[in-house]
Every structure is written in structure tokens, then in C-alpha cells.
Write a structure and sequence with these properties.
816 residues; alpha+beta; Immunoglobulin-like; binds ligand MIG
């Protein structure tokens, strides 16, 4: 790219979005039924329509006799799907199709399709056409109403609402890419939701080659385009935004419950250079009492960047290092790139040659390209026999006690003109051979699948952790996603919010950016603000590039260190609550970190609100994301909201102006919420001196009630699959005279390690006259020493109740 004004020389202008004068699906000449599908035969290509599940209709183009219903690995095999039967009628000009409650009308003349369902806005696919020259290159135009808003599309730059943007799905490693004009990043998730006045539908274009989503060029429509292969579209019914996301999760699978340690704080740098530096880092965290669970090893740990090796000078004794780290409570997550160094003296390379595991050219030669180790070969992860080999290779790490892997460069990134593999390279794809161009976006996901399944098989019942840069729809089944090479810019801190929020709306709940920024140099202030915000993201890792200023929490003096320590501490205190929401995400596919629009889809104020977000459904986080700034506006949606720090209450549906000096992150809890915290720990598995969980109840007034069915398990193993988990139903009922709280286990399969279960009631304006079921009233300072009792904090208006943990549950009655 030219980097002077010559870049916009008139002769360089290209007309990027050409008009598409391809052939239309209409004229439809025949209509027939085959194997639960309706086939519309056009004069140039055909369209098949089938029902996948209640509320999910699949439309797929085909040429030849019959459609190929194979799917990409995005779609999981699932039991319990209930395809609806199809009925249809035809006239000379129209075909009318009924599938469950959904009605499709297809013009036989133009091929225009409209999809209606009483519960959601009508989708009009005004045209579906195929470029005559190219193979593939289908283009569809979906009509958009003026007040349609668009979410999803995975990891993209820009704001929350994707209306007015244009994106390409082509997993790309572009250095320093988090700028608004960047159309393709590392992940490709060709799924979007359209929201109109609270009603929603989704479109998933399942094609792992290059696809384009253009919501900019045409005022009244979105253009969806594939470059290779067929146009395979899933139309997903709402009517709510949440239902669309849940259904998308039914199709593409859910995040397995991660180990709790992976939800802790991760520290990384490109690179911690040797064993001594890694151990010093670990000791520093413990001495400074800054909680941390994970240290990442970037590429310098390897011998000449050969995967599955350690550099013997830098890491002379990984066993000993790992032992010391384990005793301090640390996990190590080493980076593993896909490129295997072409080196006949390197056993891993030769295993791949002997086993025929590498991607090859059409003529059958092993394809190689330059990456860190020099010329390298690339395992063909689309083949299960290759993934099995890679799975077994993870033993190199698991034998050392390593239970997490970081997959980088898996777009795959290659240091050449196109930045990736030659599109003509061949993938075996389980017998359904494809060129790289047709399946490019699958490479990273298939690699992470191999990493995850390998670790899982080798870890003796412990849960693995995989972090990936590249991915496709379904990546949530195998890995957490970090958003790649951002920079230490305030702009990138704020862009991380919509980016990770939309990942969450695209089926990927476990994601986060490099906190503090990767490239460029962070400042103390930026690190403090970013850490405050970052600890409330699902994935929390501080990472920074080679040659940048140091970025560990203590790199900028005491004030910044204390702020980082306080907020990382909060992450650990909040763990019972966060973990509960991770559990919910693993069940429903709904994100942990939520845009307000997901909870308040009728409120126009929140359609593009992305400088504040929700954790779960009832805590608003509103970070400061500009330098030298102590004030910001915060939008509080309907309901009543309580300042987390001061207890002050605000009516919703208003903007408030908030003072937030450097040490303060504005946070608001919805009245009626029940929110959980535990003790600060230095790492997830540490047993604290006073093991407890405190449920904070934000009272909301007479005549109301609230509940939380709180999930917990050991946070470490798959024992929950054998019933070792708990759910505790906490119910709060408020009347004029009293508040009753009951807690009871609705499932008790796991014995929690705590001794006490506490309740805090926030918003009680005077000392209660009695608290039945809670022992005696004691002065606040003495409560810690009691096993059971209650105290009233006059300064804050908070009632604190301490109870013994027991499997039978509790009943409290507070007389006001
Ligand atoms: O081309 O391994 O995004 O997190 O530190 C750079 C070195 C390769 C890119 C990753 C970054 C990592 C770096 N990697």
C-alpha cells in the first residue's frame, strides 16, 4: 500500500462495489419435493428449502440434480431438533410455502423471497443472483427497514450497530489492524441479527470461503455475497434477540464450561524470555499480592520456533520451572502456532511428512510458506486423522503439567504477499476435497479443535483451556478468543467494547482484548483505566509486544499498581457471580458481557450504546476511556439503579453525569438484583482464610420479589457431568412490614468448601426491628468473629447477615 497521498491518485481508483448483473434465481421452472425439502429449479441455478429445527429454515443454492446438504463443521450434530413439515402451493407467478408458523413467498418471475412470521418483521430477500463468470459468487440483497439495527458478525471494528458498515469474512493477520476501515480481522463469523423495535431475526451464511456483508453501499438493503461454493443461508427466527442467539447456539454449539483458573487474570508478554524471568514474574505477583492465575509463554520459549520444543538455554529445565510455578498456584499457557519448521532433523516435521499430514499443492507437493521458524509446513487440520496426530502431540505439554494452549497465527498467517496460504492449496476435508480458498476460514477453528480435544483426552478429567486468534462460527466449542494485535491507544480500549460485545452476540461468550494494548507503548493512566474495564470482560489478559514499555501492573509506580491490584482483586471477589454467568452462557449461548440492547431491546437509547455494558443481566460497567478525564455520562435504562460504590439510587431512563477519578470505575447494580461475591484470592484454587459467599440483595420495595438460581461446581474438572454440581435458589420477597429471604439447594451434588453463606441487604434505611433465622444482633466489627449473627451498618444502610453453610438451606425474615 502506498503511504503518501499518491495512494489516492485518480488512476489508482478501483470501483470496489460493482453493480451485480448476474443471473437471477427466477425464472423458476419446476418445483418439487425431495427428502423433506422443497426444490425450486431455476433456469440458471436452483434453490432448496428445508426446515432444520423449529424456527430455523435453511436455504441453499445448488446446481445439478439435487442439493448437497453437507454442512461445514460450524453446524453441530444435535439430537432433539424438530424439523417442521413443509407444505406449499403454486400459481404461475408465485410459490407459497408454509413451514411451522413461517410463510415464505417466492416470486417465480424474479426469485424474490419474502419470509414472514407474525412474531417478527418480514425478511425480504429481494434478489438472489449468481455471477455468470465466476464459480460461486452468489449475491443476495436483503431489504432493510430504516429502523433496522444489525448486531453480530463476530470480531469486527466499528461500533455496536453494524448498519452502515461493510465487512469481509476472510481470516486475516494484518498487523496493527484495529482501525475502523479494516474489513477483515482474525475471526470470521458470518452471522448477524436484525432488530426492529424489539423484534428480531438472524441470518447465518454458512460459507467458510470469502464472504462479504455490505450494509453500507445500498441504503435499503444489506448485500450478502459468497465468493466460492454455494449460498447456504440459515434464516433464524426470533422473535426476540435472545431467542435468535439461543437458536444460533443450538446450531453451532456452546462454550464448554471453562476451568475457573482460566477466568482469572492472565499475564503475558512477547516474550518472557527465560525461566528466570518467568519465575521472577510469578514471585512478584505473589509478593505484591496481585492475584494472577496464568502466565503465557510467547514464541521465545521454543527452540528456533519449533513447536513442541523448549529452547535449552532459555528454559533448561521446564519440569523444575513448572513444579515451582504450580506450587505458587500458576498455570502456564504456551503459544503453539500451526507452522511446523521444514527441517529434516526435526522429528515433528518428519512425522508429518511420514504421516502425510501437511497441506499440499494440487500436484501433490507439501506446501510450505515462511513464518517464524522459516519455511514451514502446515498440518491439514480439516482432516480428523491429522487432528488426532496433533492431539497426541499436546502430550509434550501435558506431561509437564500444562493444561492450556495458546493458538496464534492460525488464520493461517504466512509472511508473504497474500498474508496466507495459496488459495489453490488442497485440503482433504474428510474426503470432500476443497481448495484453501473455499475453506480458508476453517483453518484456525480446526486447529483449536485439535488442541482442545487433545488436551481434554490427556488431562485426566481436568478441563482444558485453549486461546485462539482465528476462528469461524462454532469456535466457542473449543477456544476462548483474544482480539489480536490492538495497540496501546485509548481508541482501541474503547473499541474493545463493541468488538467483544458483538463476539458475544455471535455465539462467542469467552473473549477479550490485550489489556493495556499490544503494540505501541501504554501509559500508567491507560493501563489503570483499561485494567478497570478489562477485569469485567469475559477474558482477562494483559499482553504487550516486544520492544514496548513494560506493562505489568507494577510498571508505572505505586498508584497505578494499587488500582490494578484493587480491580484484579474485584475480578476474584466477583468470581462466584461471573462463574454463574459463564455457566448460563454454556447452557444458553447468551453472552456473559452484554450490550444493553440485549436486555432492553425496546429502548432506542441503547441501539448503538457501546461505551458501557452489562455483566450478566444486572450490573452496568461504564469505564472512562479517555485520558485526563474524570467525568462521563452514563445511561441507566428502565428500573432503578444503585451506585455500586456509594449505594446512591437513581431512577432509570435517564443519563447521569458521573465523577470517576482515576481509581474509580463507575458501576451500577439494578435494584432487585442478587449478586454474589467471595473472598479475594491470589489464584482461583487458593483456599481463603474465611471461605464464604456473600449474596448481596439490592432491595427494591414492598410488593416485589426477586430470585437467583445460582450454579456452582468444583470449577476444575468434568465431575459436573456426573452430577457434581449445585444450584441454590435464592428468593427474596418484600412487603411493607418485612423481607423474607430463603435459600435452598435445588440440586446438591457438590460439597462447597466455604464455611459461611452471608447475605447483605442494601437499601434498608433503618435498623430492622428483628431478623428471624439469623441469630443475634452484634456490633458490625464483631460479626466476623461470630459463626452466626447479624449487624446493621448505619453508615451505609446495609444489613449484614452471617450464616453457616449447610445443605438444608436458610430462611430469614427481616422485620422492618
Ligand atoms: O506476528 O508470537 O497476535 O499476541 O505476541 C506476531 C508473537 C506473532 C502475534 C500475536 C501476538 C504474539 C505475537 N504473534
Amino acid at each position: 500500500m502506498l503511504d503518501t497521498s499518491a495512494a489516492i491518485h485518480p488512476e489508482n481508483a478501483s470501483h470496489r462495489t460493482q453493480s451485480h448483473t448476474g443471473v437471477q434465481l427466477g425464472n423458476i421452472t419446476h418445483i418439487k419435493e425431495l427428502d423433506q425439502a422443497l426444490l425450486l429449479v431455476g433456469s440458471h441455478f436452483n434453490l432448496a428449502i428445508t426446515s432444520v429445527d423449529a424456527g430455523v429454515v435453511r436455504l441453499k443454492t445448488y446446481r445439478g440434480q439435487a442439493p448437497n446438504w453437507n454442512t461445514t463443521p460450524a453446524i453441530i450434530a444435535a439430537e432433539g431438533r424438530t424439523p417442521q413439515s413443509i407444505t406449499w402451493t403454486e400459481t404461475d407467478v408465485q410459490v407459497s410455502v408454509t413451514i411451522g408458523k413461517t410463510r415464505l413467498e417466492i416470486s417465480r418471475i424474479t426469485g424474490a423471497i419474502s419470509i414472514r412470521n407474525e412474531a417478527h418483521p418480514t425478511v425480504e430477500m429481494v434478489s438472489l443472483q449468481r455471477n455468470r463468470e465466476a464459480i460461486g459468487d452468489y449475491t443476495a440483497f436483503i431489504s432493510l427497514a430504516e429502523d433496522d439495527h444489525i448486531y453480530g458478525l463476530g470480531e469486527k471494528t466499528g461500533f455496536l450497530d453494524k448498519r452502515g458498515e461493510r465487512y469481509t469474512m476472510w481470516n486475516s493477520d494484518v498487523y496493527a489492524p484495529h482501525v475502523p476501515e479494516m474489513e477483515a480481522l482474525y475471526q470470521s463469523i458470518p452471522f448477524l441479527t436484525v432488530l426492529n423495535q424489539g423484534r428480531s431475526y438472524g441470518l447465518f451464511l454458512d460459507n467458510p470461503g470469502k464472504t462479504v456483508f455490505d450494509m453500507r453501499t445500498y441504503a435499503n438493503s444489506a448485500m450478502l455475497q459468497t465468493w466460492t461454493g454455494e449460498f447456504d443461508l440459515y434464516w433464524i427466527e426470533g422473535p426476540t434477540l435472545k431467542e435468535v442467539i439461543v437458536r444460533y447456539g443450538d446450531l453451532t454449539g456452546r462454550m464448554p464450561l471453562p476451568p475457573k483458573w482460566a477466568l482469572g487474570y492472565h499475564q503475558s508478554r512477547y516474550s518472557y524470555m527465560d525461566e528466570k524471568e518467568v519465575l521472577e514474574l510469578a514471585h512478584n505477583f505473589r509478593e505484591k499480592e496481585i492475584p494472577c492465575d496464568v502466565i503465557h509463554l510467547d514464541i521465545h520459549y521454543m527452540n528456533g520456533y519449533r513447536v513442541f520444543t523448549f529452547d535449552e538455554n532459555r528454559f533448561p529445565n521446564p519440569e523444575r520451572m513448572m513444579e515451582e510455578l504450580r506450587s505458587l498456584g500458576f498455570h502456564i499457557v504456551p503459544i503453539v502456532d500451526p507452522g511446523v519448521k521444514k527441517d529434516p532433523m526435526y522429528a515433528v516435521y518428519m512425522e508429518g511428512v511420514d504421516g502425510d499430514f501437511y497441506c499440499k499443492t494440487a500436484e501433490g507437493d507439501i506446501y510450505t510458506g515462511p513464518v517464524w521458524p522459516g519455511e514451514s509446513a502446515f498440518p491439514d487440520f480439516t482432516e480428523s486423522r491429522v487432528r488426532e496426530w496433533w492431539q497426541e502431540k499436546q502430550r509434550f505439554y501435558t506431561d509437564l503439567g500444562i493444561d492450556g494452549i495458546w493458538n496464534d497465527m492460525n488464520e493461517p498467517a504466512i509472511f508473504n504477499e497474500t498474508k496466507t496460504m495459496d488459495v489453490n492449496v488442497i485440503h482433504g476435508n474428510e474426503g470432500d476435497r476443497k481448495t484453501h480458498g473455499e475453506v480458508h476460514n476453517l483453518y484456525g477453528m480446526c486447529m483449536s479443535q485439535a488442541s482442545y480435544e487433545g488436551l481434554k483426552a490427556l488431562l485426566d478429567g481436568k478441563r482444558p483451556f485453549v486461546l485462539t486468534r482465528a476462528g469461524y462460527s462454532g469456535i466457542q466449542r473449543y477456544a476462548a478468543v483474544w482480539t489480536g494485535d490492538n495497540r496501546s491507544f485509548w481508541e482501541h480500549m474503547s473499541m474493545a467494547m463493541p468488538m467483544v460485545l458483538n463476539l458475544g452476540m455471535s455465539g462467542v461468550p469467552f473473549a477479550g482484548p490485550d489489556i493495556g494494548g499490544f503494540a505501541h507503548h501504554t501509559s500508567g493512566e491507560l493501563l489503570a483505566r483499561w485494567t478497570q474495564m478489562g477485569v469485567f470482560f469475559p477474558y482477562v489478559r494483559n499482553h504487550s509486544a516486544i520492544d514496548t514499555l513494560r506493562q505489568e501492573p507494577w510498571s508505572f509506580g505505586e498508584e497505578i499498581e494499587q488500582i490494578c491490584q484493587q480491580y484484579i482483586g474485584l475480578r476474584y471477589q466477583w468470581m462466584p457471580y461471573l462463574y454463574h454467568w459463564f455457566y448460563e452462557a454454556s447452557k444458553t449461548g447468551l453472552p456473559v458481557m452484554r450490550p444493553l440492547v440485549l436486555e432492553y431491546p425496546h429502548d432506542p437509547q441503547v441501539y448503538n450504546l457501546c461505551d458501557q455494558f452489562l455483566v450478566g443481566d444486572s450490573v452496568i460497567i461504564a469505564p472512562i476511556y479517555r485520558p485526563n478525564t474524570e467525568w462521563r455520562s452514563v445511561y441507566l435504562p428502565e428500573g432503578e439503579w444503585v451506585d455500586y460504590w456509594s449505594g446512591e439510587r437513581y431512577a432509570g431512563k435517564q443519563h447521569i453525569h458521573v465523577h470517576a477519578p482515576l481509581a474509580k470505575l463507575p458501576m451500577y447494580v439494578r435494584a432487585g438484583a442478587i449478586w454474589l461475591e467471595g473472598p479475594i484470592r491470589q489464584h482461583a484454587e487458593e483456599i481463603a482464610a474465611d471461605e464464604h459467599v456473600t449474596a448481596s440483595v439490592y432491595v427494591q420495595g414492598a410488593g416485589t420479589s426477586s430470585t437467583l438460581e445460582w450454579y456452582e461446581d468444583d470449577g476444575l474438572t468434568f465431575a459436573y457431568e456426573q452430577g457434581q454440581w449445585n444450584k441454590m435458589l435464592i428468593q427474596v420477597t418484600e412487603s411493607e412490614r418485612d423481607i423474607t429471604i430463603t435459600s435452598k439447594y435445588t440440586n446438591y451434588g457438590y460439597e462447597p468448601k466455604r464455611t459461611s453463606l452471608n447475605f447483605r441487604l442494601l437499601g434498608i434505611s433503618a435498623v430492622p426491628t428483628g431478623v428471624a433465622g439469623a441469630g443475634d444482633q452484634v456490633p458490625l466489627e464483631q460479626l466476623a468473629a461470630q459463626t452466626t449473627g447479624w449487624a446493621y451498618d448505619t453508615a451505609r444502610g446495609v444489613l449484614v447477615v452471617k450464616l453457616q453453610e449447610n445443605s438444608a438451606g436458610h430462611e430469614l425474615s427481616i422485620t422492618l
